[in-house]
Amino acid sequence: MMFGLLKCLPVFLLTSFALAQDRNLRTVKTAFENANITEAADITFDPTLLLEVAFPQASGDEVPVHAGIQLPRNQTAIPPVFGIQRLGSLHVPSGTFVVAMVDLDPPTPQDPTEAQIRHFLGGNFELGRVNPDGVELLSNSTPAISNFLQPTPPAGSDPHRYVFLLFQQPPGFNRQTEVNATTPIENFNISQFAQDVGLGDPLGGTFILSSLALLFTASLALFSSCQDTSLATVQTAFENVSIPEDANLNFDPTVLFEVIFPQASGSPVNVTAGVQLARNETAIPPLFGIQGSTSSSNDTFVVAMVDLDAPTPQDPTSAQIRHFLGGNFVAGQPDAGGLSLLSNSTAALSEYQQPTPPAGSDPHRYVFLLFNQSAAFNDQTEVNATTSIANFNISQFALDVGLGDPLGGTFILVGPDPTS
Ligand SMILES: *[C@@H]1O[C@H](CO)[C@@H](O)[C@H](O)[C@H]1NC(C)=O
Ligand SMILES: *[C@@H]1O[C@H](CO)[C@@H](O)[C@H](O)[C@H]1NC(C)=O
Ligand SMILES: *[C@@H]1O[C@H](CO)[C@@H](O)[C@H](O)[C@H]1NC(C)=O
Ligand SMILES: *[C@@H]1O[C@H](CO)[C@@H](O)[C@H](O)[C@H]1NC(C)=O
Ligand SMILES: *[C@@H]1O[C@H](CO)[C@@H](O)[C@H](O)[C@H]1NC(C)=O
Ligand SMILES: *[C@@H]1O[C@H](CO)[C@@H](O)[C@H](O)[C@H]1NC(C)=O
Ligand SMILES: *[C@@H]1O[C@H](CO)[C@@H](O)[C@H](O)[C@H]1NC(C)=O
Ligand SMILES: *[C@@H]1O[C@H](CO)[C@@H](O)[C@H](O)[C@H]1NC(C)=O
Ligand SMILES: *[C@@H]1O[C@H](CO)[C@@H](O)[C@H](O)[C@H]1NC(C)=O
Ligand SMILES: *[C@@H]1O[C@H](CO)[C@@H](O)[C@H](O)[C@H]1NC(C)=O
Ligand SMILES: *[C@@H]1O[C@H](CO)[C@@H](O)[C@H](O)[C@H]1NC(C)=O
Ligand SMILES: *[C@@H]1O[C@H](CO)[C@@H](O)[C@H](O)[C@H]1NC(C)=O
C-alpha cells in the first residue's frame, strides 16, 4: 500500500522540488490528525493523492497552500485554483472529481456552533494542463454547487481551520438535490453529504488556518512573559550539547531570542533552550520575538532554523537541514512583558518545514538563530525556494552573506512521532 512505502521516508528526501506545497501524503495525513480535523469533520482521511490548492493574488505570485499553513484573510480573496500533484507512482484515477471546502470553526474554534460552513462545493472537475511545478490543474466546465466564499473569521477569533477535500465523483452526482445555490451554508456536514451522495472517503485534502490580518496580536497577552530569561543560561545550554562546535558558530548571545509554537487549539508552546517538544507541537510555523529592551529596535533581522542531526545524531550525513530561513524581520512594540514580536513583509527564502526525524532516531537538535541583517542579504543568490534544504551550512551562509555571528538563539529537541 502507498502508505507503507511512504511511512518511513523522512520529508527531506522529497524536498528537491518546490517546497511550498504538499509533497508527502504522510505529512498531510499527520497534519490533519494533529489539527484534529479527522475527528472534527468526521472523515476517514487516508489520502492517496496530493491535492494542491493555490490562492491567486491581485498582484504578484499566487500563494500555494500546504497543510496547516496560516494565511492572512486578505490573501484568500480570489477563489483558489486546485490541482493534483503527479508524484512518483501515486495512482490518479480517471474520471471526474468533486472538491469541497469547509470551515470547521465558526464562529470560534472554542464554540463552533455554526460549523461547518460550506465555503465551496463543486463537481465535474477534470485534470488538464500541467503547471511548471508538475501539478496537473483541475478545471470545471459547470457552475459550482456552492460558489467560493472568502474565509471571514470574526474579529478576535482564533484562526479557523478551512479544509479542502477532493473526492472521486460518483455517477449520478449531478442529479443530487441535497445542496443547491440557496441551501444555507451554515451547519453543513461534509461527511453526511459524502455519505448521502456516495462520494466515499476523500482521496486527498489540505487545509489552511486563517484569521484577520493581524495574526495573533489579539492573543499576544498569552505569551507575554516567557521562555529564556538569561543569556548566560542560553549560552551554557548551547555549549552543553556542542551546538557552537557542531554548527561552526561563535555563540555569544546579546539578545534573548524567543520562539513560540502556536497550537491548533490551546495555548502556544514556549521554547526554552534545550526543551524537548513532541513533534505534533511543531506543526504550525513558529512565531519569533525578542525579549527585553534592545538598542536594536530599528534593526532588520534574519532568522534561521537548522537541524544538526539529520538523519540521525550518530551519523548526520544530511546535516544541516534548513528548516527555515527568512529576512526583513523587524521588531514590533514590546508588550507588557517586554516581548517584541518580529514581523516580516517579504517571503521567506526557505519556508518552515516541520521537524520530521525518521522513525527510530534519537531526538534531533533544531537550532534557531537570529542575525543582524546585512546589506547584502536581500541580494544574495545562494539560497532560494528550490535550493536543496539538505547539507546546508548556516555558518558558511552567514560568512558568505556577511551576517556576522548570531545575536541570539535557542533550540529544541524533537524525536520521531510516536506513531511513525
Ligand atoms: C500529540 O500526540 C500525543 C500522543 O502522541 C497527544 O497526547 C497530544 O495531545 C498531541 N498533541 C497535539 C498538540 O496534537
Ligand atoms: C477533536 O474534535 C472533537 C470534535 O470536534 C472534539 O470533541 C475533541 O475534543 C477534539 N480533540 C482535541 C484534542 O482537540
Ligand atoms: C494584507 O494586509 C496586510 C496588513 O494589513 C498588508 O500589509 C498586506 O499588504 C495585505 N496583503 C494583500 C495581499 O492585500
Ligand atoms: C434548494 O435546496 C433547498 C434545500 O436545501 C430546497 O428547499 C429548494 O427547493 C432547492 N431549490 C431548488 C431550486 O432546487
Ligand atoms: C455528520 O455526519 C456524520 C455522518 O452521518 C455523523 O456521524 C456526524 O455525527 C455528523 N456531525 C454532526 C455535527 O452532525
Ligand atoms: C508560556 O508562557 C506563558 C506566559 O508565561 C504561560 O502562561 C504559559 O503557560 C506558557 N506555556 C507553557 C506551555 O508553558
Ligand atoms: C548544562 O549541563 C550541566 C551538566 O549536565 C547541567 O547541570 C546544566 O543544567 C546544563 N545547563 C543548561 C543551561 O542546560
Ligand atoms: C546591526 O548592524 C547595523 C549596521 O548594519 C548596526 O548599526 C547595528 O548596531 C547592528 N545591531 C546589532 C544589534 O548588532
Ligand atoms: C528608530 O527609528 C525612529 C524613526 O526612524 C526614530 O525616531 C528612533 O529614534 C529610532 N530608534 C533607535 C533606537 O534608533
Ligand atoms: C514571514 O515569515 C513567515 C514565517 O514566520 C514565512 O512563512 C513567510 O514566508 C514570511 N513572509 C511573509 C510575507 O509572510
Ligand atoms: C536557485 O538556487 C539554485 C542553487 O541552489 C540555482 O541553481 C538556481 O538557478 C536558483 N534559482 C533561481 C530562480 O534563482
Ligand atoms: C561550514 O562552514 C564553515 C565556515 O566556512 C566551515 O568552517 C565548516 O567546515 C563548514 N562545515 C561543513 C560541515 O562543511
TrEMBL record:
UniProt keywords, alphabetically: Signal
Alphabetized SUPFAM superfamilies for the sequence: PEBP-like (SSF49777)
Pfam families: PBP
The UniProt record lists the keyword Signal: yes
Signal peptide, first to last residue: 1-20
InterPro entries: PEBP, PEBP-like_sf, PEBP_euk
Protein name: PEBP-like protein
Species the sequence originates in: Sanghuangporus baumii (Phellinus baumii)
Record lineage: Eukaryota, Fungi, Dikarya, Basidiomycota, Agaricomycotina
